[in-house]
Design brief:
The complex is a heterodimer of chains A (521) and B (198). Chain A is mainly α. Chain A has 22 helices and 3 strands. Chain B has helices at 33-52, 90-108, 122-129, 133-136, 138-142, 167-173, 179-192; strands at 3-10, 20-26, 58-64, 67-73, 78-85, 151-154. Chain B has a 6-stranded mixed β-sheet, with helices on both faces. The longest helix of chain B has 20 residues, at 33-52. Chain B is globular, with a radius of gyration of 17 Å. Classes of the chains: A mainly alpha (521), B alpha+beta (198). At the A-B interface, strand 1 of A face helix 1, helix 5 and helix 7 of B. Chain B: Belongs to the synaptobrevin family.
Chain lengths: 521, 198
């Protein structure tokens, strides 16, 4: 009886056509005088008391078992209510799917209905699959509409809605301008609709990934969405540079977001290759630039927020790509830099005092700052180019003035000189020109030194396992056998820092020693 | 990487009187409509319990499921609690707590104990500003060490409570939680009893 009462009330609300934003379970009884007693419904927020959920479910399941006797309308409402309470009920979902292909369900409204379900249960696989089916149906129906409108015109232009995002490149073979305008208008409307719909889909994916981190289904759905766009290059770049950067900064331990960035980079590469206008070299340069920017971005994140394993995994991906494209420069040995980081490694292994480690740490940071554009505040670097030019002018002027004045301002002189040096470094050094395995090793050493120096030890030694992977990677690709001893000392360091995986490092050491023995034999 | 709530208490540390809640800031946009009220009450309850259970001039970081609560009980009878998720850097959280207490003292330096209410709107502004720890943390990036008092790290709220105290009894007696929230806690606990994985 209780279940039936609630069922009928819910039916009322759904039939009245009011928009429902959210569904939830409440723990306080609603007053008897309210309009929707025993439900709570205000400003689109629908709530059912927790004691009423079980009777409601029992009643609706009972009805569902008798669905052969019910009419189509009744089944639609029944499944809607049933899925609200139990979204994982696949039979009801499939029933709705048949009505979707029938044409009894409006795809757009169904998408809005799914928003409510996904907000509470963002990780149900069947819902995401169903959502993809609805989206396909929505695009199909839109395409049919457009084709119907076009078929009414005497000039039958095959305007496939999927092809044109840039309407200006629309290659119409029509004769009259009026028809062209009409078709263009239709295409414009259509493109707007598609873009609006896709924006909403992207925002739902972000929302669900926010609620439940590393949400596999939300991210794979997001990747599938790109199939519906035909000229997505500008949108891809915007997604890479704006929306995903914001998302990643807020969710650093979400490796799925970084994996999605990897997908975007690959997709941009394939899209650039399709455009045969530019020469191959220029294209490859563009793609490499993107990967270097990615390296800068990830280094920025790693230095500001140390201790997130996901960023190091992402760095592996970026580095592999760059190493494979720039084999000559990456694997080339730079003796000076190599001596530098080999020395740092020895110092680390031999356990220096804290003061010396601090000095070492500062030296490395100063060295890396202009290359990776990190630690800009610490060493008085200015980020924007305009400010840089102004500063050089000012420092030159101050230098001239101080030459005529006394030595009271020697301190300022030194500071301005330092600033000048720093600014020159910032302007002249770019990561692309000096990037190599040796520079990357210095970066890894810095991370481990940071771990040693900082007092909080909140930072885990993630950079250490990355460093060992890097040495092995270079050793296998360039047959640089000297790296064996360095590998051993690095593994010994890791044994010291990463106490949870001691056995892992022991086994690795054994492997290296055994391989040596085999070679000797 | 976000801060969910920020609470400021006045407490003399004598353990006879309870901490007095002066101001709260709460970030509600990541919770659904039906959960907001009880989450806010829950945050205030947890902050109150932790403020009561930290000694004078002590800092603590207590982990509770997906969230970490940072408490700082300062020498000048002020105590601040921030509830963040586990990505938020600890150093920034404690510098935020310091800033909240400093700003409050700037306004109400000599008047603590005189007034009945202490409207402090800046707490909400600070909460929003520190949602992005990078922008707000430029000073403390250079200072890599805070002052000498160390931070005590706890794994669960239960460890903060005294012997013989039960979280359920505290919840029942609490003024911060409405009947709805208490009921929600009881029902949720009952339903999750069968799950022994976590």
């Amino acid at each position: 009886m209780e279940g039936e009462r609630i069922y009928t009330k819910l039916q009322q609300i759904f039939n009245s056509g009011q928009k429902i934003k959210e569904f939830g379970v409440i723990f306080e009884h609603v007053s008897v005088n309210s309009e929707y007693y025993p439900l709570f419904f205000e400003e689109g927020n629908l709530g059912v008391h927790y004691q009423n959920i079980l009777p409601l479910l029992q009643f609706s399941l009972c009805l569902f078992n008798q669905r052969s006797t019910l009419s189509e309308k009744e089944i639609l409402i029944l499944t809607k209510i049933l899925l609200l309470v139990n979204p994982g009920f696949v039979t009801a979902l499939n029933k709705r799917r048949t009505y979707l292909y029938n044409g009894s369900i409006n795809p757009e409204k169904e998408l809005d209905y799914l928003d409510i379900l996904l907000a509470r249960h963002p990780k149900i696989q069947e819902l995401w699959i169903y959502r993809f089916d609805i989206l396909e149906e929505y695009f199909k129906q839109n395409k049919n509409q457009i084709n119907n409108i076009n078929n009414k015109n005497p000039n039958n232009n095959n305007n496939n809605k999927k092809e044109n995002n840039n309407v200006n490149s629309n290659s119409n073979s029509s004769s009259s301008n009026n028809n062209k305008e009409e078709n263009n208008n239709n295409n414009n409307k259509n493109n707007k609709e598609i873009n609006e719909r896709l924006e909403k889909e992207f925002s739902i994916c972000s929302k669900c990934a926010d609620i439940y981190p590393r949400n596999y289904y939300a991210w794979t759905y997001r990747i599938k969405l790109w199939k519906h766009l035909s000229d997505p290059l500008s949108l891809l770049l915007e997604e890479l540079n704006v929306t995903m950067k914001q998302f990643v900064k807020k969710h650093l331990s979400d490796y799925s977001a970084l994996n999605y960035r990897q997908f975007l980079l690959k997709e941009i590469e394939t899209q650039l290759k399709k455009k045969k206008k530019k020469k191959k070299k220029k294209q490859q340069d563009e793609i490499l630039d993107l990967y270097f920017q990615e390296l800068l971005f990830i280094s920025h994140l790693q230095t500001n927020y140390p201790g997130f394993e996901s960023t190091w995994q992402h760095r592996k991906f970026v580095l592999k790509f760059i190493a494979n494209r720039q084999k000559k420069t990456f694997f080339k040995m730079d003796l000076e830099i190599r001596k530098e980081w080999e020395m740092i490694l020895e110092d680390q292994v031999s356990d220096l005092e804290n003061e010396n480690l601090l000095k070492l740490n500062q030296q490395i940071r100063l060295r890396l700052a202009p290359i990776y554009k990190i630690f800009l505040d610490e060493f008085n670097f200015e980020e924007s180019e305009n400010e840089q030019n102004e500063q050089t002018e000012n420092s030159e002027q101050t230098e001239n003035n101080e030459q005529t004045e006394n030595n009271e301002q020697t301190k300022n002189n030194e500071q301005t000189k330092n600033n000048e040096k720093n600014l020159q470094l910032l302007n002249h050094i770019s990561l692309k020109n000096c990037f190599s395995f040796d520079i990357e090793m210095i970066y890894c050493q810095m991370v481990l030194l940071d771990y040693e120096v900082s007092n909080f030890h909140q930072q885990r030694s993630c950079g250490g396992s990355y460093k060992i992977w890097l040495i092995e990677f270079v050793r296998n690709n360039s047959y640089d056998l000297n790296l064996n001893t360095i590998l051993q000392s690095s593994i010994k360091l890791m044994k010291k820092y990463d106490t949870t995986h001691k056995n892992l490092w022991k086994n690795k050491l054994k492997l290296i020693e055994n391989s040596k023995k085999i070679k000797k034999k | 990487m976000k801060i969910i709530s920020l609470c400021l208490f006045q407490w003399r540390g004598n353990k006879i009187t309870d901490p007095k809640l002066l101001a709260t800031g709460f970030e509600s946009s990541s919770f659904g409509f039906f959960k907001r009220k009880s989450v806010k009450e829950w945050c205030e309850f947890v902050s109150f319990t932790l403020a009561k259970r930290t000694n004078e001039s002590q800092r603590q970081s207590v982990k509770e499921k997906d969230y970490i609560c940072h408490v700082h009980n300062r020498f000048d009878n002020l105590s601040a609690v921030a509830i963040c998720d586990d990505e938020y850097p600890r150093r920034v959280a404690f510098s935020l707590l310091n800033k909240v207490m400093d700003d409050f003292m700037d306004i109400y330096r000599n008047k603590i104990g005189d007034l009945q209410e202490y409207p402090f709107e800046q707490i909400v502004q600070l909460l929003n500003k520190f949602q992005d720890p990078n922008q707000a943390d430029k000073l403390s990036k250079i200072q890599r060490t805070l002052d000498e008092t160390t931070i005590v790290v706890q794994d669960a709220i239960e460890k903060v409570l005294k012997r013989g105290e039960n979280l359920e009894i505290l919840i029942d007696r609490s003024e911060f939680l409405s009947g709805q929230s208490k009921q929600f806690y009881r029902v949720a606990k009952k339903h999750n009893q069968c799950c022994t994985i976590c």
